[in-house]
């Protein structure tokens, strides 16, 4: 190798050194930040396998063995068991998902494709509801549902979803539908399709990315909703997982290991849903945001 080639190689290595250093510090910072955010979760996971005496006495030590005593005792610590709470949560989540997919898609189709009086005004009012705190309408809603006899049932948590009350998902689908060529609607109209058939056979199948996003967010938000479920569900047989964890605090008598064990199990459904549908979730948000 000539002196000139050696010199050029040395220059290239010197130029790469700052880039490698910046990459090292960038990845190092990200890893450090991730460890800080994950530490409470890791601590909860490790402590769920420890006896209560060691949870706070040795908070940073790893468990010596995988003792499932806390999981078994915590599962049956309440009456009914935590299995019933999971079933109740899935019932509420399923109803909320079906309601949002059905009502929000129809409403979004109306705003994106139909022409009717005060369309822009109604759309603006709908968007304004995104800035309305849930606590503002909490008392009027509770009075209404109480007069209807819906308290201590799942109807207050499911029925509003069939009335297209989640403006975020409507806006998401409206943006997506606006990106679907209107030529498809015109071709279907020539073939004799009405607006409802256009929606069912053309628009709805093409809405899959936005629908998947709606399903994922609705499931996670409904599953983790503690406040609304605490207000409307009072009977032990109707409690969901978040409210069941709260009841476990009173029933366990300060047994922290059981509470931590059930907290770990309560994260499993949302973790599975997010990991399975992570790619579709990102695609749905990005494609809906790019539609003009």
3D structure, described in words:
This protein has 292 residues and is mostly helical. Helices cover 73% and strands 0% of the residues. It contains 14 helices and no strands. The protein has helices at residues 3-47, 52-55, 69-75, 82-113, 119-128, 138-147, 155-158, 167-178, 182-190, 195-206, 208-223, 227-232, 241-252, 256-290. It is globular and about 75 Å long. The N and C termini lie far apart (57 Å).
Which key phrases capture this entry?
292 residues, mainly alpha, 14 helices
The geometry reads as globular
Order of helices and strands: HHHHHHHHHHHHHH
Classify the helix fraction into a percent range.
Answer: over 70%
Report the structural category: mainly alpha
Radius of gyration: 26 Å
Largest sheet: none
Q: Total number of helical segments?
A: 14
Instruction: Quote the distance from N terminus to C terminus.
Output: 57 Å
User: What value does the average pLDDT take?
Assistant: 84
Please give the number of β-strands.
0
Summarize the structure in short.
The chain is an all-alpha fold and 292 residues long.
Write the topology of this structure:
Elements: H1 3-47, H2 52-55, H3 69-75, H4 82-113, H5 119-128, H6 138-147, H7 155-158, H8 167-178, H9 182-190, H10 195-206, H11 208-223, H12 227-232, H13 241-252, H14 256-290
Helix pairs in contact: 1-14, 3-14, 4-8, 4-11, 8-14, 11-14, 13-14
């Amino acid at each position: 190798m000539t002196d000139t080639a050696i010199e050029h190689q040395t220059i290239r290595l010197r130029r790469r050194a700052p880039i490698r250093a910046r990459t090292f510090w960038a990845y190092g910072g990200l890893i450090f930040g991730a460890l800080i955010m994950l530490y409470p979760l890791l601590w909860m996971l490790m402590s769920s396998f420890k006896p209560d005496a060691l949870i706070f006495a040795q908070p940073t030590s790893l468990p010596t063995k995988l003792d499932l005593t806390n999981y078994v005792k915590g599962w049956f610590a309440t009456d009914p068991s935590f299995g019933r709470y999971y079933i109740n949560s899935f019932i509420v989540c399923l109803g909320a998902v079906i309601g949002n997919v059905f009502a929000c898609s129809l409403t979004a189709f109306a705003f994106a494709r139909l022409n009717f009086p005060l369309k822009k005004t109604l759309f603006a009012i709908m968007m304004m509801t995104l800035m309305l705190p849930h606590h503002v309408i909490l008392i009027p809603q509770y009075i209404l549902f109480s007069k209807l006899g819906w308290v201590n049932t799942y109807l207050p948590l499911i029925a509003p979803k069939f009335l297209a009350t989640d403006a975020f998902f409507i806006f998401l689908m409206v943006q997506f539908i606006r990106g679907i060529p209107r030529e498809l609607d015109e071709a279907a109209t020539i073939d004799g399709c009405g607006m409802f058939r256009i929606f069912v056979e053309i628009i709805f199948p093409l809405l899959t990315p936005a629908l998947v996003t709606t399903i994922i967010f609705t499931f996670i938000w409904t599953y983790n909703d503690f406040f609304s479920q605490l207000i409307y569900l009072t009977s032990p047989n109707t409690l969901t997982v978040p409210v069941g964890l709260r009841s476990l605090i009173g029933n366990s008598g300060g047994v922290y290991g059981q509470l931590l064990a059930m907290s770990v199990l309560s994260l499993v459904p949302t973790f599975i849903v997010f990991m399975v549908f992570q790619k579709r979730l990102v695609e749905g948000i990005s494609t809906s945001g790019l539609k003009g």
